[in-house]
Write a structure and sequence with these properties.
This protein has 283 residues and is an alpha/beta fold. It is built from eight helices and seven strands, in the order βαβαβαβαβαβαβαα. It has a single domain, classed as NAD(P)-binding Rossmann-like Domain (Rossmann fold, 3-Layer(aba) Sandwich), CATH 3.40.50.
Length: 283
């Protein structure tokens, strides 16, 4: 069991959406310190002020997780200001939601930078400390898009497939070093946070509510669960892909479950303001 009470929790993309909800739930479970990394200065400041007004110890840093140098510098500052985190949640992510040929080179670089290089950079920045201490819990928010192809999600899906492979490999490496080093990989379908505005939930796969997803993740941290998939039908995807011929898989998942048309009306939300600032502690 990972003890949330008394722990230092760091969440990337923690100023809004399920990141903010997970932070609140960890504080309610007794986390001693919450560290939030985000690129949106106004949301970060609002969230820090909100939690601080409730009496919680919360630290905010402006960090672009796609910038390796910024991540390393911010990690060093966190350790100096707050201490080595106990729980690290790689939650920051973006999606473009367009046909591949309509992606710009910047779209590709930014999506891969935030969605897969970012979690690697963040984990690496703290991993030596985790291993030396012999304990720590890393949570990587992947996606059901990492389990199935989907039109208008090619680059996003690629990034999340990469998260799955890296996260599970990291788990095995850490388990070989200490029984108290844990990795949880989360693969949710669409979540109603605005990030996937306009997307339609496939058959038997309703748009997920953020509160339920965040609660499931926090429970999984406490229970040291390896994989969290939401909704439950997502557990079928690896089985179907392994057993069915590709064309039959396309027919069942794409046409019957309507996965392949789920992004046809995607609009998304406006991109948050980006910052070149590496850190801004204790807003």
């Amino acid at each position: 069991m990972t003890q949330i009470s008394g722990s230092i929790v760091l969440i990337t993309g923690g100023a809004s959406g399920i990141g903010k909800l997970m932070g609140r739930k960890c504080l309610l479970r007794g986390a001693s310190q919450l560290v939030i990394w985000d690129v949106n200065p106004s949301l970060l400041e609002q969230t820090i002020a909100e939690f601080a007004a409730e009496g919680y110890n919360v630290w905010g840093y402006l960090v672009d997780v796609a910038n390796a140098q910024a991540v390393q510098q911010a990690a060093e500052q966190v350790i100096q200001d707050v201490g080595l985190p106990t729980i690290l949640v790689n939650n920051a992510g973006i999606v473009v939601g367009d046909l591949f040929q309509q992606h710009s080179y910047l779209d590709i670089d930014r999506t891969l930078g935030i969605n897969i290089a970012g979690p690697m950079y963040v984990a690496k920045a703290f991993l030596d400390g985790f291993v030396s201490r012999g304990s720590g819990h890393i949570v990587n928010i992947a996606s059901a898009a990492g389990l199935t192809p989907n039109p208008r999600m090619s680059v996003y899906a690629a990034s999340k497939w990469a998260v799955l492979g890296w996260s599970e490999s990291l788990r095995l490496e850490l388990e070989q070093q200490s029984k108290n080093l844990h990795v949880t990989t989360v693969t949710p379908s669409y979540i109603n946070t605005g990030m996937f505005a306009g997307a339609r939930g496939p058959l038997l796969t309703p748009i997920l509510e953020p509160k339920a997803v965040s609660e499931a993740i926090v429970q999984a941290i406490a229970a040291n669960r390896i994989i969290v998939r939401k909704p439950s039908v997502v557990y079928l995807l690896p089985l179907l892909r392994g057993l069915l011929p590709t064309r039959l898989f396309d027919l069942i998942v794409g046409r019957f479950f309507n996965v392949y048309t789920s992004m046809d009306h995607f609009t998304g939300r406006p991109a948050p303001a980006q910052s070149e600032t590496d850190k801004k502690p204790n807003l």
